[in-house]
Every structure is written in structure tokens, then in C-alpha cells.
From TrEMBL, chains A, B, C, D, E, F, G, H, I, J:
It catalyses: a hydroperoxide + NADH + H(+) = an alcohol + NAD(+) + H2O. SUPFAM superfamilies: Thioredoxin-like. Its main location: cytoplasm. Belongs to the peroxiredoxin family. AhpC/Prx1 subfamily. This is Alkyl hydroperoxide reductase C. It is found in: Cytoplasm.
Length: 187, 187, 187, 187, 187, 187, 187, 187, 187, 187
């Protein structure tokens, strides 16, 4: 059974955001769309480029009413230290959650127990705190943040238009399908 | 713990491919790259367009040395029936696996036990039968098969160039990074 | 212990009937006589002829106040697809239940867990939802729907005439036996 | 899971046959076709007519190479007593098994534990001792032995012609179907 | 621990008595003295003579206010059939209990689980439903019903004269002993 | 399940016999017929008369090749003390077993655990150490040793003439029955 | 953990005292000092002399307000029998408890489970029913009752003078010690 | 079950003896008679006088071939410290075992778990390491070491003269009893 | 998980302090700072010098509002005995707790179960009874009590100035740090 | 039970040392003395000064043949990042172990499971990999590294001079004690 359709489980965490240390709980994932992006380790290699790429999409995601959170098993202290040190990370303005207790990573089923590090999982969560999409890549395979906008648009359309279905590669404005018995076996 | 980095578990199944009924096991996922695409049900709505979209990428994926498999909990008989009935499905030339025992869907952790149907999960598997990427969408949010090519290319590059890392949005020919201590905190 | 004399256990299912998708629960089996006919798989071989044969008896069974339900572990979508494709199945006007969660088949103890398919079991259920007859055949041995009418008539006679017993090969109008002590060892 | 396709479990019993007391085990069900007919109680009401009806088919069943066994939880002594007393039972020449230990009835899942009596179950067993058909009726609904001949013929045809399938209401000499991919969705 | 001094456990049974089928429960064993006589099987060998012998004592036992019950794991139907067939059994006017569910035999600890038949146990039960004497013989060793009268008289004397004790081979009218300290070691 | 037909379980005990202390084990019950008579307590009331009665039959039982053993949970020291004190007990020449460990009484299922005393059980054991008859009386109801001779004769006849059966109230020299099918329902 | 300082556990027993049968429970051990003397068996060897010796001290113990109880796993009937037979035992006027259920012996942890006999344990119990001294000897080593008087006097002194301590070999009238810090390491 | 007749369980301990620290194990209790004297605490009140009293008997016990050991849950360091400080303890020449791990006290069932101190138990152990006598007193009731000599003499006599028994208050040279059947109930 | 930050668990003990025996519980560790110093054994080697060293710091610790407790598994009797005997220990004026039940040592996780002795652990406990520092040395490595003053001062400063942090080797009057985001990575 | 005297459990970790990433296992703690210093988090407040203080003692510790390791649950990547950012940390030349799997911290019993961070524990380990000293401080109470030199010297002296003991505040060259019986209670 995948996590799709399940509600985010409770947690308490410290995060770094815009030069501040802030508290984050599962309640932050309710009332707006959320993108949650796990990565293994601060100060490691692929991660900065992925997180920079995510920052580049941040404005577009915010326009769609979506907030962005990155999570690693590092502390919020380390997030600040990295933010201060790395040119790429310094640009980041979204919330960087510290998960040293590994509880959030375990809840999202991306914790590598042997290493104590999170897999590279990206989750889209709807305003009810329910997980809508999961994407996880093995180490070394970078994620492309640019398709998050499309996925959220599709998810928002489905949410606003219950009873219609959204074919593959849907783009806003394109025709959608309202399921009817006649369509069975026709499309 | 995610399925990333784990080997596909054993199974036996009947499939429909090119007008034939064939046997498929986990051994089929070894010796070449594989894309495995789960979907809930034949003769239902989003699925045909997703599967058609996957067919459109099939040639490109084959050029990369990747085989494509679709899986639902329907039987291979139903796959043939659908193939005969639906214009979109009729184009499909890749292997359509029947999983009425629900064993494969359960192994890939995409079985909705309540409904007896698979979630919309896509997996890329390397030639060792090890899962490299996972992507799962809630019902109604169509998948875009076009980014499979990019992901496999990245995965292949990482496999062929151990010791280099592949930043986000990597495209073939672009520069990659060889991890060195000096890069820590710099990128 | 057989299922004879036990009440049908609760379930929720989607079915295809007369070009519509309808909901069916165990409550549908109460208030009238029901014939429930399990078979392994849509689009497979013996099944169509058995189901066609059942359709041929449908009018006669309805005259006896009996409803007819077929069940396989295929979805209601597939039932519609098969109905559209197959000349034999297209004639069917009774309710075709989809049991992809395999719950109904498991409740009636006809699920082949290894294959995920139902055995060829036929059940007659009385208006209290209590199972009165069970008949199950191995694959390949077709069922003869024509004796369902006789069985239901006998079951209805017994229900309406408690205290009489119905000898083998009973036919309506023929003499029945009222059990009395004198009959012991005489018949 | 039904008993269809499972082998008869081991047992030891005393039986009455042709004026003799004989031993019967599960080995008697191997090497020829067998009809095993459970009924609740000697000296009770429906049973004699059902058993007489079975006797009437005995010759035809023997011509098909099938042996006939009746079973109740009465002893073999009682079977002899009943045979001596009842005009209908006196005609019986097939084997009447006594199952006072209730083990056989429990193995065939027809034992009513509360009453200590067997349900009215009829089983056809192939020469490997494997159950091919099950039929069970509630009390008062008589069984019609005449369709046993047809069922055994169908079962024998399937056994002798693996790869062909036998549509409903099959009768010897009628055309059977050899399953091929082309037939899917056509019949 | 023996059953002596324990109350008969609850049961429900059908019995044959004087040409009628009657219901019997553990309540029938209260309010009068009862003799309960188990035997293995109707229509078998020693049993008829034992049961006939018991019938011969029935009048004398009734004069003592004692009722008589025979029990085997045969049904009440079989008891009637045997009553009709056997000259010896036909004389019986006491209650013949059918115990096909084997519950009574199990409660009295005389059920041979392997055979499903009762051992030859005779029990005297007082008007409170409490077991006063147990006698069980191996197969082939006939019981002598004639000493039941003496045992019940002794049991009744003890019940009516609490505080006296009844030496071996006591006969009505003979002197009994009132236990006193002086008797210790004297008798 | 009664103890009839079961072998006596192992034990070690001290006994008093003919002015001597002797060892007794379950092996003493093999190679000859044995009568084992449990009683609650030395120096108590009914017991002496029962034991005296048993002594009176001792010679007759020995002629039949049967040994006699009395058992209580008293020690062998107490048996000697009682033998010395009581006129009735002083006559006893059979073996008086002491069972202070209560093991023998528990094995024969006659131990009243609450009181630590044995019920009044009498057992006949065949030369294989197998229990053939059980008789247990509540306190106050004396046993009549005189019918032990008859029971042992019957048991010996059955043992020497396997295949014949012994009707109730059988006495030596009287006609016995050889079971044959023809007798079923006739006697 | 020894029994010293623990309260006597509940029991019910029959005893022989002064030619009477009396009831004894753990309540009898409250309100006065008690000496409880276990021994293996009536009518055995060391025991009579030990019990006679105890009788010789009885008057002195009574003067101290102490009652005396002997206990064996023999019954009260046997105690009377022994009292009648043995010159030594005949002198006894204290309470002889029968413990055939072995419960008291087990509670005082002196039951030899293998033999069903009590070890030779002597216990002094204070007026609260709390065990103050334990003495147990192996078989053959006789106890000397004469030191019971001294032990009870010491125990009584300690009870009446809490805060003083009583050195070894204390005798009434001799100086006792009131514990004070100054005594530590001095005596 | 008491410890009488059981072998001392294994242990390892440090002890103080004659100005030396020595090792003691359960093997020290074999090959000669041993007196083992537990007491609660060094530097406390009753203990010194008891231990001094034991020292006074030491020579006499050694003449009988018996060694003496005192045990408390104090360490051997404390034993030395006490020996140096206390006039009474300074006289001690027997072995003073330290049991800070509380294992020996627990094995002899004299450990008060709540306090971590040993009860005042004295044990006589025979040359096979088997416990022959147990004596335990509540706090404040001093032990009298002088009767140890008598007990060991009695135990030695029994050991050397198996088959004789030793009446209460036995003293060397006095007549003992050889158990014979004639003595039962006579003494 | 260490004991740091956990509350002291409940206990009851006797202690020696200033020539008195006093009761100590976990409540004594509340309302003031406490130093608890475990050591293996009175009258052993390193311990006296460690305890003397602790006495030397006692005045300074009291000035800081801290009480001092030593604990070993010896009794309070032994503490007094040692105090009287040893010149070094005689100087001690702080509380010497006796822990013969080993409960306190077990609660502080310093009990060597095999030996029954405590490891050399020193604990600083704050006025809420919460453990603030732990220091444990292997046998032979003496502790230096002089750094307790510094540790308590640091702990007191932190307690009185929540929100400031105290760098290593902090000494009263030196500058402390108030954590702020700007300090991350700077110090 | 404390960790004193136990061997370090196996682990595998990545560490940062002198600008390199190196592997560290429990084997690194064998063959020389080791100081292992846990702290909660890189880039947090007290930690840098503690670690700087430890660096200041590093040369002196190396002269004693001791290696130094710091451990936090941060990764080795973060250690490098911190090393690059912080002036204080940049001076560090000893090995900084990353323990993101939390296994080492859990083995040393300093993991705060709720927070996922290590307590401030310092351990001295001897050349056999056996823990000799433990010191743990609550958050905010800085450690003073300067006393590590003294502790190691003392531990080394004890190791090289088995049989001597080392009083508190021992310094090299000062007199040590060789334990002898005479010293008991003297020092």
C-alpha cells in the first residue's frame, strides 16, 4: 500500500527559514498545497543543485498557492550553517526542516535506517494534508523541479472538478474528460 | 524505508504482448533497463491515455535499452479484450502484465487492499533488477511519460560513471560533477 | 462445515447491469430469491457459454421471483468492456458484480488465493439471505443452468410448507411427504 | 478456498456393501471415478428417496467407470439395519460408508458440528483422488442423481482432452472448444 | 478426579420413547432418580441383551422412583428403526436418547473419540442431578442390570439418613452404622 | 474418554501384605488378572466392611487367577497399624497399597484433590495391564464384591474367545454369541 | 526468602484432640503463641518419641501461653487410630492435625512432593499468626523439644520489649541489650 | 519443599579466616561436616554474641570433624574490619564468608530481598554437601550454638548406621532403634 | 539514553551522619543541590582517600548550597564501624548511605550485579532531583573531588540564566554566551 | 550496570580528519588509548568551545599515546562544512566522527532518542577497547578537557602496575598503595 491518499502523520520539528528558526508541525501542511522535498545530507553533492532548482520554481509554486519545504536528517543549526556557506543554498527562501530525530523521514517511508539519511523523495500534499503524489529517485539521479507546477495544476483541477478525469500530459486549458459509461473501452 | 535500492521480489505472471500470451517473472527485469507502470483498471478512464502516452515513448526507451511493462490487477485475458476493443490500447506493443493474484502490486507496495486495485506507480529498474526511481500519483493526476527518457539517461550515466554525481535537471552531454572534498559547501 | 444455512456476509461492490453501473451489497440478496454464479475470468473460454446459458434461464428464474448475479474478480469496468465486445455476453441482462477486492469470493469460499480467481460456484440464496444450495465445478466442466429452476421450486416449496419433506427429483405438483414417525424406516 | 482440485484426505472406515461389512479408505477413491454422496441420517425422510435415485443411476455410472459411495455419520451396523428394514434402501448395491467418528464428513467440510450430522453434499472425484465437483443442498431440497452422468462425462472428456474446454450443457458428441487467443472476447 | 459428586452438564437431545420422539435435557435428570446407560451402537451385538436386561428391571426401578435412559451416538431415527426391527429392543419402554453430536457422551467421559462411539457406562444420578455411581465395562463384558436396584436403594437410604453410613452389601432393613468416634478402628 | 482399554500408568509404592512391607509397581498388574480397589481412608467407617467383603471373595478371585489390591492415600505404616487394630481388617491377606504421594489415585482418576482422598473406585485389569472395568460409588454407597467374580469370568471368556460376544448377565457355561452379520438387528 | 516474618496462610483441617474430632484453621494460630510440629507419618519410627517428647514439654509451653499442634499428611481418623494403638501417642493431649490434602505442609514448605510426606519441621508462631522460628531436620535426626521453651521465652521478651535485643543463649532474667549506636562494633 | 536433603548449589566467594583472605566455593562443603551460620549484618547487635557463642563451640565441632562458616551479605573487607574492631569477633577463628552478591543467601533461601540482608539461618551439611538440618530465627531471638554438637552427633550416627533410627533427644551411647515391622504402632 | 535529565527514582535507606543513624529518601535530593558519590566497599583501598578528598571539598560545596552523600552497598552499621576504625573516614561529616538492598545503586545504573558492589560513580543532582552530571571511573582510577565545585557553579549559572550558554572551562565571572542565530557557525 | 569495564561495540562510520574523509570502526579504539567525546550538534553553541578546549589538550594527550575522537549525529559532510566555517573548529586536527545512523551514540548510551542528538559524554578507552571512564554533563554545563590528561595517566599507571591502587587526586610520581590486608580499615 502506498502513502497516496493518506494523511501526513503528526510531527514536531525545528526549521530554518529566511534567517529565522521556526517550529513546523503537520498542521503547517493544511490549508494550502505543500511540496515536501527530502534529501540525504547538507553539505553533500547533488543536493545543492536540486534545492537550488526547487528555489527557482518557488515563485511559480507560490502563485499556485503552494508552500515548499525541504527536509533532511540534519539539524536546523546545520541548515543555517549551510545557508551561510553555500552560494546555491544561500538563495533559498523556503522552509528547511531539520529532522535529526528521523521521525518525519520515517513517517514518509524514505528513511534509510542503515545510513540514518533520507532518500530523495518529493511529495505533493493537498490542503487537507493528504499525500497526492510521491516521487523518489536513487542517489545520483537528480530531480527536475519544473514538473511540480504541472502536477499541482493537474491535482488542483481534479480537486476543483470532481467527476472529471485528467488524461496524461494534461495542461491547463486543455480538454478534460468527464467519465461516463460510454467512454469505457472507447478511449 | 522506500523501495529505492531494493531488488524486485520474485513473481510469476501471464502477460499479453503483441497478440501473444507470454509468461513474465522477475527475471525479465534483469539484463536490461525496465520501466514498470502500474495502473488501476483496464476499460477505465485515465488509464488509456497514460498507456498510450507510454507507447509513444516506447521507441525512445527501447533505444536506451529499456523494456516497458504495464501492470494492473486485471487478467491477461482482459488485457487482450481491451487491446481488441480500444483504439488507444490497440496501439500498444509493450508487455501488458496481468496481476489478478495481486502479488506484484503488493510487492511494489502500490496495492490498494480495500479496492483490490493498483495505485498509479511508475518504477525504473536497472539491469540488476534493482529499483532506481519510484513515482506514484493519486487518481486523476495523469503521468507524463516523457520524462522517463531523461530519468533513465541520468540513471545510466550514474551507473556508467560511478564516482560522478548528476545535478538536478541533468541532460545528456551537460557537465557532471565528480564529488571531491573541495566541493563540500561550495555547490 | 459447509456454507449451507449460513447468512451471506456483508460486502460492497460495483456491478454492471443493463448498461448501468450500480452498487450491490449483501442487502440485495434479501427479500427475494437469488442465484449467485461465480466464474474465473471475463474474456476467458467456458465462461461465456455458462453465462449465456444462465441468461437463457433468467426469465424463468424471474418468474419464480429469483434474481440472478454473476461474480468474477474482474472490475465492473471490465464487465462493461466484455459486454460490449462479446456477442454472447451482450445478451446478458442480469447483474454482473465486479469483485476486484476478492472479498465476496473469499466470503463464499470459492477464491483460489494462488490465482486470484474464483472457482465456478453457483449458490441459491433464500429471501432471508441464507445460502440454500452450493454447486462448484472444476475448470472445464460446464454448469447446466437449467436445473436451477427445479432447485428453487423445491426450495420454495419446502420454505412454504414447513414440516413436509421433498424427496429426490421432486417436481412441482408431485406428492410430497409430511414427516411422521411412521415413515421412519418405511421409505 | 473450495475443495475443488484438492486431494481427498486420509481416513479409515467400515462400510456395508452387498450384505458384507468392508473396509474403505481414501485409497478406494483412486484408480477409478468416484461419486461420494453424504446425507444426514439413516431412517430419516428425504434420504431414502435420494439414495434410491442414486441406485437407479448406479448402473449407468458404473458403465462410465465410476464407483458410488454413500456416507452418513451412522455406523455400518445401522446401514445394515436400515438396508434390512427399508424397501427402498434394500435395493442399494453400492457401498454405504459409516462415519461415526465424523472424520470423513469433517474432511469434506460437510459436518454440521452442532448436530453431528452431514450436510447433503455430493462430490465427484477423479481417478487421482482429486475432487472435481461439489454440490450441497439444504435439508428438504432433494438432489437429482441423473445429472451425475453428464457431469462425469464432461469431466472425463476434459481429462482425456487437455487443452480443450467444455462449454455449459455439454453433451457427449457435441463440439468442444480448443482455447485459442482468437476466441478471447469472441465467445 | 472422577465424576462422582458432580452435576450433569447441560445438553439438548432428541430421544425415542414409547413410539414418540421427545426432547431431553439435563433438567430431565432432576427431581427423580435416574439411571443413564451408555452403549456403543444400535444394531450391534451385546447391546440388545444389555438393553433388554435393563428393560426387565425397569418396573422395579420405577417403583423406586427412578427413570431409565439409554444413550448411544446414534440418532433418534435409528433408535426408532432398531425398535421396529429387533424383537428385544421392541420391548423397551424407557427413553432412548440419540447423541449424534456426541456431546452427552463427552460430558460423561465415555466417548471413544477415535471411533465416535460411547463406552458401556452406567450412571446413577440423584434427584439433584448429581452423579452417585459410575460403572464402565470394556466391550464384550455384559452389564448386569439387576444390581442397579440395590445400588439405588442404598443411595436413597444414605440420602434420607445423612449421618449414617452404609456398609458393603447393604440390603434394605439391615442394620446401618451411625458414624461415631468410637467406631474408628473398631469395625 | 474413559480409562477403559488404557494401560495402567507407571508408579512406585510401598504396600503391606501378610505382615510384610513390599514394593508394588505397575508391573505387578501384568501377567495375571488384578482387582484394584480404592477407598478413602483407613480407620474410617464404610471402608472396613467393604474391604472385609473383598477379603471374603479373595479365595474365589485367586482361583480365577486374579490378585487383589486395595489402595488408599494412607501410608503402608498406617495400613499395618490398622491391620493390627481392626478385627475386620486383620483378616485381610491381599496387598494393601499405600499411596501418600497420591500418584496412583490421580492416575486412576479417583483422587478428590480437595480432600486428598480417593473415591471408592474398583478396577479390573487384564494380564496386559489394561483396564477392563471401572466402578465408582459415592461415599456411603457400599460396593458388593461378589459380582467381581462374574465380571472377571466374563472378561476372561471374551479374552479367550475373541470373536464371540457376551450378552448381559452372562454366566459361565451359558451360550455366547459369535457376532455375524446375520445377527444385526435380530437380537 | 525464608518463611520467617510471614503470616500463616489460610487452611481448613480436621484434627484429633482429647478424644474429639475438631476443626482447625489458620485462625487457631492467632491470639496465643503456637508450636507447630510436622512429622512424616503416623505409625512410623522416630515420630512417636518426638511427639512424646513434645507432650512432655506441653505443660511448660502452656504456662507460657503457647498451644501445641502436630501435623502429618495422615487423616484425623488415623491420628485417632494411632492414639488408640500406641502407648506413647496415647499420652498426647495436644491437637493432632490431619493434612491429607497436603495443603498445610505445602504452605509451610515442608512437603516432600515425591513421597507425599512432611519433613520434620518445627515452627514457633506469634500471637499475630506470624512465623518466628523454623527448624527442620533430615529423617533420623530427632528433635529436642526442650529448647522450645527457651525460644518462646526469648521471642516473648523481644515482643514485649521492642527496641532491646537478645543475645545468643539468652535466659530469662539475664541482662539484655538495648541497641544503641555506641554498641556498634563494641560487642 | 524444604532444602533438607538437597545439595548446596555452586557459588564463589571471598572470605576472611585467621587474618587471611581466602576463596570459598561449594566444594569446601564436601568431604567433612559443615556448619553454615547466616546472620544479617556485621557491626550490628545480636550477631556478635551469636558468633562468639559459635566460636566457643568451634573446638568441639572440629573434634567431630566439622568445619564452621559464618555468612553475611557484607564483604570480606568488612569482616576483617569488624574482626579488628570488636573484642568478641576478634576471637573468631572460623571462616567468615562475604556474600555481597547475595547469591549464597539466595541459594539457602534466607535472603530478605527487601533489606538485602540474610535471615538468621543455621545449616548442618553432611560430607556429601547435602543439607541435613535447617534452623532459622526471627530477628532478636538468639541462637544457641550448643545444640549443634548434639545434632551433628545424631546425624553422624544415622549416617554411619543406616537402618537404625534415632529417637528424640538422642545422646551418644544411648540405645537407638533398628526399624522393624514389629515396632509400628508399638512405640 | 543516559540518566542525564532524568529524575532520581524513589528509595528508602538508612545512613550514618555525624554519629547518628538517619533515614534518607529521594526527597532528600530535592530543594538543594546534591552530590552523590558511589564507591564499591567500606574497608577497601582507594575508597578512603576518595571519600577523604570529598570531605575536604564539603565546606566549599555547602557554601554553594550543595549537600554530599556517599553510597555503597554496605549497611549503615558498617559505615559507623568504618568511621570508628579509619582515621581518614573518621573525618567525614557528610551523609554515608547504606544500600544493602542494592536498589539505589541499581537505579543509578552503577551496580555490578556479579559482585554486588557499586561502580565509582559521582552524580550532581539539581534542586528538582534531576541528574545534571554523571562521572564514573574504573577501579583504581581515583576521582578528583575538586572539580565538583566548578561543575556545580556552572550548573547553577545555567539554571539561573536560562537562555545563556556556558562554554567549556567556564569560571564564575567570565563572560557567557547568549545563544543567538548569529552565533551559529561563528564560535 | 554502567559501561565501565565493557568493550566498545562494533560500528562503521565516516569521519573528517585533517581535510580528509576517513573510515572509523571500533578497531580504531584498540592498540592505543582513546578519548571519545560526544556532543549534540555541529553549528550549535557550547559545542565549539568544548571541542576547541579538547584540541588544546590534543598534543598532551598524544604524548600519552592517546588518540582523540569527537562524535555527533551529524554527517561527516557537515563536520567538514563546520570545519570550513568556524574559526574555532577550523583548528581541530583530531578525528571528527559522523554518526547519522545514531548507532555509536546508542551503543555508548548517550543518545537522546526524542531529539536524535547525543548527550555530552566523554569516554576514556584503554588499548583493549575497554571503557575506563565515563563523564556526562547536562546541556549548558561545559566540560573541562584538562583533567583528561590526569585521568589517562592514572589509568595507565593502574594498567602498568596491577596490584597497586591509586588514591584520589593521584599525580604521576606520587606514592601509590599496594593493597595488602593490613591496609584494611587503616586508610
Amino acid at each position: 500500500m502506498s502513502l497516496i491518499g493518506t494523511e501526513v502523520q503528526p510531527f514536531n520539528a525545528k526549521a530554518f527559514k529566511n534567517g529565522e528558526f521556526v517550529d513546523v508541525t503537520e498542521e503547517n501542511f493544511k490549508g494550502q498545497w505543500s511540496v515536501v522535498c527530502f534529501y540525504p545530507a547538507d553539505f553533500s553533492f547533488v543536493c545543492p543543485t536540486e534545492l537550488e532548482d526547487l528555489q527557482n520554481e518557488y515563485a511559480a509554486l507560490q502563485e499556485l498557492g503552494a508552500e515548499v519545504y525541504s527536509v533532511s536528517t540534519d539539524t536546523h543549526f546545520v541548515h543555517k550553517g549551510w545557508h551561510d556557506s553555500s552560494e546555491k543554498i544561500n538563495k533559498i527562501t523556503y522552509t528547511m526542516i531539520g529532522d535529526p530525530s528521523q521521525k518525519i523521514s520515517r513517517n514518509f517511508e524514505v528513511l534509510n535506517e542503515e545510513e540514518g539519511l533520507a532518500d530523495r523523495g518529493t511529495f505533493i500534499i493537498d490542503p487537507d494534508g493528504v499525500i497526492q503524489t510521491v516521487e523518489i529517485n536513487a542517489g545520483g539521479i537528480g530531480r527536475d523541479a519544473s514538473n511540480l507546477v504541472g502536477k499541482i495544476r493537474a491535482a488542483q483541477y481534479v480537486r476543483q472538478n470532481p467527476g472529471e478525469v485528467c488524461p496524461a500530459k494534461w495542461e491547463e486549458g486543455s480538454e478534460t474528460l468527464t467519465p461516463s459509461l460510454d467512454l469505457v473501452g472507447k478511449i
